[in-house]
Design goal:
Shape: globular
Structural class: alpha+beta
Strand content: 15-25%
Oligomer: single chain
Number of strands: 6
Order of helices and strands: EHEEHHHHEEEH
Strand order of the largest sheet: 1-4-5
Number of domains: 1
Number of helices: 6
């Protein structure tokens, strides 16, 4: 498990070279690269999107459900895997995240991994084209 101070996480997000609403993180379960903009597009409430960013997958808002097992080779499973997101959130019982953000008061919050600059910029561009 990697731990990162909040100031270092903010710096890593800023280094992506995109606006704050397009800063991106990666769901640890499905690998979907997502931003506050993509979460809002998926249905997350605008006034709470900062709480969901890097904590809940956008699939929770689109209702796509969990990813099917890799063993499931059905057409339905294949179609589901082509959709963005899953129903994962870091607020549940299981701790499958790889990054924890540490705040100045010592409190820790699980987080999705921070996307690369290239990934964040590609998502921003994809969202601009589909708008």
């Amino acid at each position: 498990m990697k731990k990162m101070l909040i100031d270092d996480a903010r710096a890593a997000l800023s280094a992506q070279g995109v606006s704050p609403r397009n800063m991106a993180a990666i769901c640890p379960i499905c690998g979907t690269i997502q931003s506050m903009a993509s979460l809002v597009r998926a249905g997350a409430p605008k006034d709470k999107v900062e709480d969901y960013f890097a904590f809940s997958c956008e699939g929770r808002f689109t209702g796509v459900g969990p990813l099917p097992s890799e063993k499931d080779r059905s057409a339905a499973a294949k179609a589901r895997r082509s959709q963005r997101g899953c129903d994962w959130t870091l607020g549940g019982l299981f701790s499958l995240h790889k990054l924890t953000i540490v705040y100045p008061d010592g409190k820790e919050r699980p987080s999705f991994q921070i996307a690369t600059a290239e990934q964040a910029q590609a998502l921003r561009d994809e969202l601009a084209v589909s708008a």
